[in-house]
Amino acid sequence: MARVSTSPSSSPTTAPPTYAERLRLPWWLWPAGIAVAALLSVEVWMGATGVRAWLPFAVLVPLALATMAWLGRIRVAVTDGELQVDDARLPARFVADAVALDADGRREVLGVAADPLAFVVQRPWISGAVQVVLDDPDDPTPFWVVSSRRPVELAEALLAARDSAR
């Protein structure tokens, strides 16, 4: 477990990523989130005057925007011989295999028979994912599951990084 670091890479020069992706929200969730915040604001307002007239809109709509931006913050990259998922790092030399999963495969891996020790970064609005099987006797984590819009490309980049690290 000591091989997965949550600190940024300490190398002064960083090679360009061989794969990079940001797990953003789809465009249609933004208007839906704003509409829900506006509806809640109207419910709190309910025709009142004074502070209750503007405060719900001034608080809930920016809060909804900040929440949606926060939900889409996760970055996935394969660079410098490691898989980077948000602030977690996995050196490619500990990757035994990387399997691209479609929606059904992801559901099977994360379903009823899921391993509770697995490291999972899953976004429900992204149908694809990659299962990264680990080969590290010191780490109790059997595998990682990471959402990706381009799972085949991510798996290929990770396997290429593994092969070049060995």
Write up this protein.
This protein is of the alpha+beta class and 166 residues long. It is built from 4 helices and 8 strands. Helix 1 packs antiparallel against helix 2 (51-71). It is elongated. The relative contact order is 0.20.
Q: Which spans of ≥5 residues are poorly predicted at pLDDT below 50?
A: 1-12
Report how far the terminal alpha carbons are from each other: 20 Å
Tell me what portion of residues adopts beta-strand conformation.
Answer: 15-25%
Number of strand segments = 8
Number of domains: 2
Largest sheet: 4 strands, antiparallel
Show the helix and strand layout.
Blueprint: E1 19-22, H1 29-45, H2 51-71, E2 75-79, E3 82-85, E4 88-91, E5 95-101, H3 103-110, E6 119-121, E7 129-134, E8 143-147, H4 151-165
Parallel strand pairs: 6-8
Antiparallel strand pairs: 1-2, 2-3, 3-4, 5-7, 7-8
Helix pairs in contact: 1-2
